[in-house]
Design a protein that fits this description.
Blueprint: E1 7-14, H1 21-31, E2 36-44, H2 50-57, E3 62-66, H3 72-80, E4 87-91, E5 95-97, H4 101-111, E6 115-123, E7 129-130, E8 133-134, H5 139-146, H6 149-152, E9 173-175, E10 177-178, E11 182-186, H7 187-193, H8 205-215, E12 219-230, H9 242-259, H10 264-285, H11 291-309
Parallel strand pairs: 1-2, 1-4, 2-3, 6-12
Antiparallel strand pairs: 4-11, 5-12, 6-7, 6-11, 8-10, 9-12
Helix pairs in contact: 5-10, 9-10, 9-11, 10-11
């Protein structure tokens, strides 16, 4: 592997991440060993041993401890105050870097000046592929998801086009946005368009940022040769707990209110229908006494409230 002397900052946001953070940092530091690098971890008021693990075992890591959970976007922006690198890597604590990932990503960045943000191939813990590149959200796609049409026709270019499942993932893919679980950004581009929007507590903050990058003339790519294992990789709403369901829909409405305000009303209608369908689906599939059913019921009831009262 060619050694690249490149200034890079890696940012990790943690919240009760003690089961993952050690493996994440070990794999990341090993992959960054040929670089001049800085790692900043912002802990969002964890109640487990996450901060202690980092402080005791990784003294070279800059640890910023928040007294409250201020969300992913704001925590990332806080970490950016510590970073003046040429490249910034945002990476989730539930990931494990496969050797060579960073080198591959930065080599691509250096050869493609139009690239503002790029991501690696995301893998599940069993080695299967996670689809991470998507088109920007729009009213059509929200309705297709709400009516399960994207699930019924997963490879269809019309009903499933927003997931780009028809793309050849063994080749470099140009996408609208890619997941913030592992995202390399050109600092110059980030300075030009601004950092994450703090109004996104969780979800859609990277989507909004990639939209601003696209509007500024930059491109977003997924690089197949760069790989990372994402342990918490499922992005299906059915796998979220109640709080994640609530944050997902609140951020979805923020995204449309900010970027596509004319579509927001009909998005709310679609989400209302989707939430009602899922409430009955979960209650019919699982006894009401199970924790799973209770979580889904509470999450989608709150989503219905957001449809009615979001401002």
């Amino acid at each position: 592997m060619t050694t690249l002397q490149t200034d890079i900052s890696a940012i990790i946001v943690t919240w009760n991440s003690s089961q993952w953070i050690s493996n994440c940092l070990k794999s990341l530091m090993n992959d960054l060993s040929s670089f001049c690098y800085k790692i900043v971890v912002v802990d969002n008021a964890s109640t487990d041993k996450t901060p202690d693990l980092i402080r005791e075992n990784f003294p070279e890591v800059i640890l910023v401890r928040n007294t409250v959970n201020e969300g992913f976007a704001q925590a990332c922006n806080r970490a950016l105050l510590e970073c003046q690198a040429e490249y910034v890597l945002f990476i989730n604590p539930d990931t494990q870097v496969i050797p060579g990932m960073t080198n591959t990503l930065i080599t691509f960045m250096k050869g493609h000046s139009e690239a503002g943000a790029i991501g690696p191939t995301l893998l599940n813990t069993d080695g299967s592929l996670q689809l991470s590149g998507n088109t920007f959200p729009n009213l059509k796609n929200i309705w297709f998801e709400s009516l399960f049409l994207d699930r019924l026709f997963p490879g269809n270019r019309f009903f499933g086009s927003h997931k780009l499942s028809h793309l050849n993932r063994s080749e470099v893919c140009k996408v609208d946005w890619t997941m913030g679980s592992c995202l390399l950004l050109r600092k110059e581009a980030l300075d030009k368009v601004g950092s994450f929007d703090n109004r996104f507590f969780l979800f859609f903050e990277e989507t909004d940022l990639c939209l601003r990058l696209k509007k500024a003339g930059y491109e977003v790519y997924i690089i197949p040769e760069a790989k990372i294992v994402h342990g918490g990789g499922s992005s299906h709403l059915e796998n979220y707990n109640a709080n994640k369901i609530i944050h997902y829909h609140r951020s979805l409405f923020h995204y449309f209110n900010k970027n596509l305000p004319a579509q927001l009303l009909w998005v709310r209608v679609a989400i209302f229908i989707r939430s009602v369908i899922r409430i009955f689906m979960w209650l019919s599939l699982y006894p009401c006494r199970t924790r799973t059913a209770k979580e889904k019921f509470r999450g989608y009831c709150e989503a219905i409230k957001l449809c009615l009262f979001f401002k």
